[in-house]
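Work Package 3 committed the consortium to producing structural models of liganded targets before the mid-term review. Because experimental data for this complex are still outstanding, the team generated a predictive model from sequence and the ligand definition alone, so that downstream docking and mutagenesis planning could proceed in parallel. The input record is reproduced below exactly as it was submitted to the modelling pipeline, together with the SMILES string for flavin-adenine dinucleotide.
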Amino acid sequence: MRRSAPDKPDVLLAGGGLASCLAALRLAETRLKVVLVEAGSQICGNHTWSFHQTDLPADDLERVAPLIAHSWQSQKVVFPRFERVLSTPYASITSETLRAAVYRSENITVRENSPIEDLGADHAVLDNGDRIHADCIIDGRGFSDAPGLKLGFQKFVGVELELDRPHGEQMPTIMDASVDQQDGYRFFYVLPFSPTRLLIEDTRYSDGGDLDFEALHSDILAYAATRAWVVKKAVRTEKGVLPVTLAHDVERFWSAIPAATAPIGLRAGLSHPTTGYSLPMAVETANLIAALERPLTTDRVRRAIYRYAVTRNREQAFFRLLNRMLFRAAEPEKRYIVMQRFYTLRQPLIERFYAGRVRLADKMRVLVGKPPVPIHRAIGCVSEARALAGE
Ligand SMILES: Cc1cc2nc3c(=O)[nH]c(=O)nc-3n(C[C@H](O)[C@H](O)[C@H](O)COP(=O)(O)OP(=O)(O)OC[C@H]3O[C@@H](n4cnc5c(N)ncnc54)[C@H](O)[C@@H]3O)c2cc1C
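The resulting structure, written out as tokens with the ligand in place, is given here.
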């Protein structure tokens, strides 16, 4: 239900995407009055947000459980050299499930079709001239390029297909990289939603962010044909171009964020540098904001998110190094070898990698042995400062 906005909400969240909606739900639980202001015709867009269940601690998993539309007890990967099943449970939240939870919350008011033109520390100005005041303004308006970042791209098109006959897939295929390598590291991602329904994505880890939607769409149909899946109809499509962070100067990045705003989600650069997944960090951020001392103010949230971003940035240096090796040391058509080798490692390490919480021993394990890329090129990737300087 979309209620009329309270005269002065406690919190205004700019943008009704993943990070804002998760934060709104968490704040609403603490009985704060929240307004979500979304430019598009509906909050939550058109997404399938998936995660490895080991990405989240048990209490967070319980909290997001009502949002989960599909879940599986295992997953697999396929490479030219081997196929491997992992017993890591996987789950997907969809735009529909998240939207429904937000609409249901009595403490959240949603304003859609309302592009924000200006944000201050205590107000937002909409394109129709409306001004909404709140002591706490949080900016969740999604990715915006900023200084202090060197990026590669993970780009993909996804098509949800209804098939003529059951496909027989019991678990998600996180990567099928046994396919033709094109435009960088390329793999298909397959989620079985029902016995006759699949989401298939064609993903590429590429140097450029341009996405040829039609070409990838027809490649997905061709892939389905190679698997002998007979398509009855295409039900839905989604697409994305996500940043893969090669180098990140967190201080420079934050110096470009207007001082009067408190960013979250991709706006604050909060995603896994390698996978581009942002759901686990969005859940953590929502918890962090909800636990802050009251009254909640823009400045208090900004300072807390800044501290969190700086800490996570330090912890993620290793992932950015791996990204540089993937993008700068490996030939584009050989990038899959890096991932193929990674998937020979032990399952708990792989789980910690996806959760963004690797230990020192994990890092050594990933780096020891014969490198899957030329050694002189790997050494050339070590310095993040040089990568930032464009060398
Ligand atoms: C198709 C796709 C699939 C993805 N799959 C996964 C996945 O499986 N797992 C995962 O963890 N991550 C996934 N990601 C990556 C990441 O989690 C998402 O991009 C996520 O939606 C980012 O969350 P966010 O809240 O920062 O931004 P968004 O969800 O992009 O939300 C930003 C919102 O702000 C609104 N907005 C922008 N400007 C204005 C304005 N001026 N006024 C008002 N509103 C505005 C936008 O319309 C949008 O609704 C996926 C991304 C895409 C694109």
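Reviewers should note the following from the model. Residues 11-147+249-315 form a domain with the FAD/NAD(P)-binding domain fold (CATH 3.50.50.60). These observations will guide the Year 2 experiments.
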